[in-house]
Specification:
Elements (H helix, E strand, L loop, with lengths): L2 H15 L4 E4 L14 E4 L6 E5 L4 E5 L4 H10 L2 E2 L17 H7 L6 H4 L6 E7 L5 E5 L9 H6 L9 E8 L1 E2 L3 E8 L2 H12 L5 E7 L2 E8 L1 H11 L2 E2 L2 H12 L12 E5 L12 E5 L4 E5 L4 H10 L3 E6 L13 H14 L15
Parallel strand pairs: 1-2
Antiparallel strand pairs: 3-4, 4-8, 5-9, 6-7, 6-8, 10-12, 10-13, 11-12, 11-15, 14-16, 14-17, 15-16
Length: 358
Amino acid sequence: MDAALEGFSETIRRSASAVRSLRVRGGGTKDFYGQSLEGEILDTRAYAGIVAYEPSELVITVRCGTSLSEVEAALRERGQILPFEPPRFPSMGGASATIGGMVAAGLSGPRRQAAGSLRDFVLGVKLMDGRGNVLEFGGQVMKNVAGYDVSRLMAGSLGTLGLILEVSLKVLPAPVAEATLRLELPVGKAIETMNRWGGRPLPVSATAFRGGELSVRLSGASAAVKAACGKIGGARLGEEEAARFWSAIRDQADSFFSDPAPLWRLSVPSTAAPLELPGERLIEWGGALRWLASNADARGVRHAAARAGGHATLFRGGDKSVGVFHPLAPALMRIHKELKREFDPRGVFNRGRMYPDF
């Protein structure tokens, strides 16, 4: 076993014996996300590097401590991208974001509405459980289904099920052409327009509505992008301005995210009408992702999201005693606890990060 893995295993076994919590941490850029941060830090950055990269197969396998920037640079050299456009939160030290933290947080950026979520691109994982044992699930091809669902469980688990050691990800070619258009619309009309675009054969790769302006990014073949620009209309942004805009939305560097009010992340059906809640809003993913900067009562925010058929997460700021994540139904909580007991029977990993009693 690699020396770094031996060190991880020894630390985990020792903590399990002492019933002591470990806080799995890479670059720490997502420390703001989730409930409490408890336990001795288990730094993953000692286990880094690209294990394998097959551009022709559209697959890359990476160790947990590898920086996101290193992986994206390697992909860029071969004209490829991580399709889910992961955020890196520069105000939180985004340059130090790691692949392990990326998968554990399970967050996706603006391109998610067209390409899919991070979870959709996880092919396989290698992890260390709460006993200090190395386990492998999935593989490096979409057809390998053995343990495939377990691999995807790691996406968004916030390190509560184990230490992600390696992950195999499907990648895609970068789009040949892109264009960003901007239209002035009221919020209700913007939601209706985004959904109408979604039902047409348009190469829409991202949408964002804020302050009465709806921005849409088109990606694909040059001819398809040009034709779609003619159908949609609006003002076209210059390439540099467009790149800055979408990067700011992805990384939450846009001025909207500087609002000091608690930031809520609401996931609702894309066709849901504008939610009657106080505060500033930014809408992405064709209407399915609603960011809300608001001092509104947590119960009221969650009730509004549930009434619309979705759920609400207290993404950043605010009083975490109300619960960061939407309360789970008893049956779902039971499944979560059973998974935790199977992978981490002594409760070593990231105790309380998702739910106080988990």
